Amino acid sequence: MRTTTTRDLSRRFALAVMASLALTACGSGEEAPPTPSDNLSASQGPTANNQLPPSIIGAAGPLTGMDLKYVPGDEVSTGYLAVPEGEGPFPALVIVHEWNGLVNRVREVADDLANEGYVTLAVDLFDSRTGSNPEENMALIGEVRSNQEKMITNMNAAVAYLKARQDVTGRVGAMGWCFGGGIAMSVGLDGENHHATAIFYGALVDDPVRLAALDHEVYGTFARLDQGPSPESVESFEAALRTAGIENDLHIYDDVNHGFWLHVDQDPELRSGPALDAWQRLKAYLARTLRQGE
Fold first, then answer.
1. DSSP H helices in the chain
2. What is the DSSP letter of 33?
3. Domains in the chain, please, with CATH?
4. Per-residue confidence at 3, pLDDT binned at 50, 70, 90?
5. By the 8 A CB rule, do 172 and 162 touch?
């Protein structure tokens, strides 16, 4: 497991932006050079090496996906589907919201992942409800925890929906943040077959016997200043994965705290460097786990 200081990442990030600016300035001269913010995100298509997805820096445009009822017999749960341009077929992702529910920030991430070439379904585990404060959020989480079977049914339905689509290759991964990261981990262990599990600071498992149920590499991004999970918990998780023989790409980022990746715009100077590194790692991880054989 790597650890990288925010100072090192910020220096690399600044150099990448400066290089991009220099290359653009060597063009025709008819257009003004872009500002640094122009190089932090891409509005359409895959991001370049020095670009963050617009969603996590508060620069997303209008939503381009659609609401979707994806659980058979359930007319309440409403997910959000984003589909890449073109005929495909594409690999697919199920993404799981934080503790406050399926809000627009998560929908925007789904749009960005579609721009990267993944049919992306953002699930709804709170029956179309969202929380506006910690008390409401914890109450919603409590309902999910009290009915694990319903949650697994919901997630399995999302995977089944994606696999049944004509434009999906059949390779599907799960990804989530905080509460959603823990759900993605649970589905990796208990859900129906899928091919990738990406966790952003979610609940972890440190039992090698339990983790041996995984049949694919695991991605994880964590924060040194976080206690949910703590760095010590992440280290125990890595040791258990190693004992279980499960390949992994885990990284603890120094100087940042819980939620840094999904909400870069809350402290862009501190969070942009680590977030870019985590995004580049995620793109590489999804490519090697979901794009096999392309």
1. 6-25, 104-115, 134-146, 148-164, 179-190, 208-211, 231-244, 268-290
2. P
3. 2-21+48-290 (3.40.50.1820)
4. low
5. yes
Q: In whole angstroms, how far apart are CA 60 and each of 36, 107, 282? A: 16, 10, 19
pLDDT tens, position by position, 22-74: 222 233 233 322 333 333 444 478 999 899 999 999 999 999 999 999 999 99
Structure-token pair, residue 272? 């942009």
Residue-level pLDDT at 194: 84
What the block records as the tokens of 96 is: 């799981």
What pLDDT does 191 receive?
60
Q: How far, rounded to the nearest angstrom, does the alpha carbon of residue 186 sit from its chain's CA centroid?
A: 15
* 195 neighbors 172 (Cβ within 8 angstroms): yes
Helix 6-25, helix 268-290: angle, nearest 10:
80
For residue 130, how many other CB atoms are within 10 A of its CB? 16
Q: Are 95 and 120 in contact (CB under 8 A)?
A: yes
Q: What is the mean pLDDT of the chain?
A: 86
More confident residue, 48 or 12: 48
Dist CA 228 CA 247 (whole Å): 23
Confidence of residue 277 (pLDDT cuts 50, 70, 90): very high
What span, in angstroms and rounded, lies between the C-alpha atoms of 9 and 263? 17
Return d(Cα 129, Cα 70) in angstroms, integer. Answer: 16
Contact 221, 204 (CB under 8 A): no
What is this structure's pTM?
0.85
In sequence order, which residues have a C-beta less than 8 Å from that of residue 154 and are 6 or more positions away? Answer: 71, 74, 77, 123, 124, 125
Among 42, 61, 1, 7, which residue's Cα sits nearest to residue 254?
Answer: 7
Averaged over 212-228, what is the pLDDT?
95
Chain position carrying tokens 């059949």: 170
